[in-house]
Specification:
The structure holds 2 protein chains of 2 kinds.
Chain A (H helix, E strand, L loop, with lengths): L4 H6 L14 E6 L4 E7 L1 H6 L5 E5 L7 E9 L4 E7 L3 H7 L9 E6 L10 E7 L3 H13 L3 E8 L8 H6 L3 E6 L6 E2 L2 H11 L4 E5 L2 H13 L4 E4 L15 E4 L2 E4 H4 L2 E3 L5 H8 L3 H16 L1
Parallel strand pairs in A: 7-8, 7-11, 8-9, 9-10, 11-12
Antiparallel strand pairs in A: 1-2, 2-5, 3-4, 3-6, 4-5, 12-15, 13-14
Helix pairs in contact in A: 6-7, 7-9
Chain B lengths: L1 H7 L2 H9 L2 H6 L10 H4 L13 H10 L7 H4 L7 H10 L2 H11 L3 H7 L11 H6 L6 H15 L14 E5 L3 H12 L3 E5 L8 H4 L8 H14 L2 E3 L10 H6 L2 E6 L5 E2 L12 E3 H10 L16 E5 L3 H12 L4 E5 L11 H9 L3 E3 L2 E8 L5 E14 L5 E5 L5 E4 L2 E4 L3 E2 L3 H5 L25 E3 L2 H4 L4 H23 L5
Parallel strand pairs in B: 1-2, 1-4, 2-3, 4-16, 6-14, 7-8, 7-14, 8-9
Antiparallel strand pairs in B: 5-15, 10-11, 11-12, 11-13
The chains are: A alpha/beta, B alpha/beta.
């Protein structure tokens, strides 16, 4: 196990004896049945990350490398916050980790930070677990002096996460659920269009499932609103080396890990992205079944 | 040069030369490398093909070397190994000394003995090749033998290290260039830290070159040697991202060697190239080599195809296609736009691939891909090529044969048409001069970049070369940085 090199050189350990190790989980919280929040000791990353950045982690020797966007960071405590939704083997195992457990490998911050300017009014659209990476962007836009209207949408009430944190940095928050269990019944686009028709929007950012971003982009294109979407592609190394995360933007191939993760949403080929996200579906399903089998035995 | 001459006049060398007539030496046939049976080895992803020489075979091969007055072979070695000395030590039976000789100038002898294109380097400048028109002394096999023998003996010598001078330097990336740089700098007394972005040290030696050609445990032993000498390794660390150059300067680093590699795969930009099932050789090999995806006990998936096409003719293409065969492909094909003569791959790899039943579709180039309704590639359209006039690389340029298009059924395509420099470091340092291809521009002798405290080498400078050329860069950069730091700090004596 690696002692936290950063803490050793800066002599900053001791405050929290738990955090003597790199990538140690300090705190966990269950947002809903499948969505968990993890606070992880990673002082270097906490210190250098900006809104829009992500990390890649590997739980243990047999684990795969997966990308996760940084939802929040605390420079003083040396921690970053990750929000994970159970989907495959790694995310399920991650959601089962407890304070004191250690993630074997974590690298970051990766990707390009979000371009934050004072533009006027920003429409921030978050879908499901995509609300987590939206949070630092909302915060940064607000701090840069913008009016921020956030539209949060999910299948049902328990999947609307981080509502209070988003509220803290938004002038207004509109909530929608597919089943009407919270807020207005409807999709993210319903809420977004309502805002667009009501006031002048200077920029839009959309983060969530690929389908949600696709329809948000179609909507804002209709109204000519510059829109960024943050993509969550399949990745291995996260440093430009493998090309698994390639995406077509404006007819040319870009790498999500080093050119993104945010791109001009009006130029992204979302249909290709949706197909590519399923590129390892069969293999992932098999791996998940093997994992469940292993848990039983 | 004088040292080489003096060494050659040592008593034991003179005596050894007198033991056999040159005619007897040149009459011996070059040794054959014992190999695993092709039909058996294609069943195992992790078994090494070449088994290595035994001591009798190695000593016999060593006796072929005539210990020339003017050893041209050394000029063919990018890290200037004293080749005749180590070979004569093998002939004498003093294998531990031979291993020590190798380590004087090479941080990775067991690796180089396996992956260097010797036929283009030392062996191409061997007296046998140049003057006798015979098969050269098997310098690569002998290098591997000495390194393996030492490792297996359990008595691994650690090269001498000068007393620490307290000056901190960093190497960025942990591939062959960095390791070679780190080895030289630690010997000079510097405090060396190697920063690596991935979770394993070794760069391309780990993620790229497969187990059947270069087992990881062999790389690990060479890494341990460096660790014993005092080199520190920081994994999961991207300089410029995890911490900036300024952060590291504030932590006391005086100079940097950037060897971040050519980690950006090239694609061909042809229709359908983003369909599922089409991936870069970097992705394919990383999944299998670094992430152990071929093993069910590991979580990372890999696509196993029935009909696998690998585009390209270099070592990476050979590694990919042979990996595909081992993962169960019924048809594993090389699709290469020139002919076998122009293939950049090592001769031995092409030969091994042929033995393993790899199909070679040479003078063939893909033009488009087609997919099923789920977006998975199922067909590849190719066209035939012929060779025209030589191009800038000196190889004959492939020219399209009009109307020669036909389709091949494929379910996995691995694109191995080269790599571009990784842009992470250049983009973190706007003051750094880069070429229009994205490679870092350096002084060729000192490897110093436009930022004085920053040196660079390996593929980030060359844009895609070999392990041994990268190691040569690492050595030159170490020498260059040493002179720079002597001048800058004024406290060091060379």
């Amino acid at each position: 196990m690696t002692h936290c090199y950063f803490c050793m050189v800066t002599k900053s350990r001791g405050k929290n004896r738990l955090s003597t190790y790199m990538n140690q989980i300090i705190y966990t919280e269950q947002f809903s049945g499948n969505v968990f929040k993890l606070v992880v000791h990673a002082p270097r990353i906490a210190n250098s990350r900006k809104a829009g950045h992500f990390i890649i982690l590997r739980i243990d020797e047999r684990g795969e490398r997966i990308p996760l966007t940084i939802a929040d960071a605390d420079k003083k405590a040396g921690t970053i916050t990750l929000v994970v939704q159970k989907a495959g083997v790694t995310s399920t195992r991650l959601c089962g980790m407890k304070p004191g457990d250690r993630i074997l490998d974590m690298v970051g911050p990766l990707g390009k930070a979000t371009q934050i300017h004072q533009v006027g009014t920003v429409l921030a659209c978050g879908g499901g677990v995509g609300i987590a990476p939206l949070l630092p962007i909302v915060e940064s836009f607000k701090k840069a002096g913008n009016r921020v209207v956030s539209v949060l949408a999910a299948r049902s009430k328990d999947l609307i996460i981080l509502e209070n944190e988003i509220r803290q940095w938004s002038d207004e928050v509109i909530i929608l659920t597919d089943d009407g269990s919270y807020g207005t019944k409807g999709l993210v686009t319903t809420g977004a269009e309502q805002v667009i028709l009501r006031e002048k929007i200077d920029e839009c950012i959309a983060i969530g499932p690929a389908v949600m971003m696709k329809y948000t982009a179609l909507l804002t294109k209709k109204y000519n609103i510059p829109t960024q979407a943050s993509l969550n592609a399949v990745m291995v190394d996260g440093t430009g080396m493998c090309g698994a995360c390639r995406v077509s933007v404006g007819g040319s191939t870009r790498f999500t890990c080093i050119d993104g993760p945010e791109f001009d949403a009006h130029k992204i080929d979302f249909d290709e992205l949706i197909l590519r996200l399923g590129g390892y579906k069969g293999e992932e399903k098999e791996a998940f079944e093997r994992y469940l089998q292993l848990q039983k035995s | 040069m004088q040292n080489l001459k003096n060494d050659r006049e040592q008593e034991w060398r003179v005596a050894l030369r007198g033991k056999m007539k040159n005619k007897e030496r040149t009459d011996i046939e070059r040794v054959k490398m014992p190999e695993m049976d092709p039909q058996v080895r294609i069943l195992y992803q992790d078994r090494e093909v070449n088994k290595g020489l035994d001591i009798a075979a190695a000593r016999q091969e060593a006796s072929r070397c005539m210990d020339c007055v003017n050893p041209t072979c050394i000029e063919g070695c990018p890290v200037s190994i004293d080749i005749p000395r180590f070979i004569k030590q093998i002939e004498q039976g003093n294998i531990p000394e031979a291993a020590k000789t190798l380590k004087e100038t090479s941080a990775l002898p067991a690796v180089c003995g396996r992956v260097c294109p010797q036929e283009k380097q030392c062996e191409s400048s061997c007296f046998y090749t140049l003057k006798l028109k015979k098969d050269p002394v098997a310098i690569g096999y002998l290098e591997r033998f000495a390194a393996d023998y030492e490792r297996e003996s359990g008595h691994i010598s650690v090269p001498e290290v000068a007393p620490g001078n307290g000056i901190k330097v960093a190497a960025i990336g942990s591939g062959p260039a960095s390791l070679s740089f780190a080895g030289d700098m630690i010997k000079l007394g510097y405090d060396v830290t190697v920063f690596e972005a991935l979770h394993e040290i070794g760069g391309v030696l780990k993620y790229g070159i497969p187990e059947f050609r270069l087992p990881n445990h062999i790389v690990n032993v060479e890494l341990e040697s460096l660790q014993h000498m005092g080199v520190r390794f920081e994994k999961n660390f991207i300089v410029g991202k995890t911490a900036t150059f300024d952060d590291l300067k504030a932590e006391g680093y005086s100079a940097f060697f950037v060897a971040s590699g050519a980690g950006l795969p090239r694609f061909m930009n042809i229709p359908g190239e983003n369909y599922n099932g089409i991936l870069s050789s970097n992705e394919y090999l990383t999944r299998v080599n670094l992430m152990n995806a071929a093993n069910n006990k590991f979580d990372t998936p890999v696509l196993r195809g029935k009909n696998v096409a690998v585009i390209g003719g270099g070592n990476t293409a050979m590694d990919s296609v042979r990996t595909a065969k081992r993962l169960g492909a019924e048809r594993a094909m090389i699709v290469y736009r020139r002919s076998r003569e122009e293939m950049p791959a090592r001769v031995e790899e092409v030969h091994h691939a042929e033995e393993e039943g790899i199909e070679f579709l040479n003078l063939t180039n893909p033009v488009a891909y087609f997919a099923d309704e789920k977006g998975r590639v199922n067909n590849m359209r190719v066209q035939r090529m012929e060779l025209g006039e030589p191009d800038a690389s000196g190889r004959r340029r492939p020219v399209v044969l009009e109307g020669s298009e036909y389709d091949i059924a494929v379910d996995v395509v691995v694109v191995a048409v080269g790599v571009s420099p990784n842009p992470l470091i250049p983009s973190a340092l706007p003051a750094l001069k880069v070429s229009r291809w994205g490679t870092i521009e350096v002084n060729e002798e000192t490897m110093q970049s436009s930022v004085p405290e920053l040196f660079a080498g390996g593929d980030i400078v060359r844009g895609g070369a070999t392990v041994i050329l990268a190691m040569g860069d690492g050595r030159r950069a170490a020498a260059g940085m040493h002179s720079y730091l002597i001048e800058k700090t004024g406290i060091l004596k060379s």
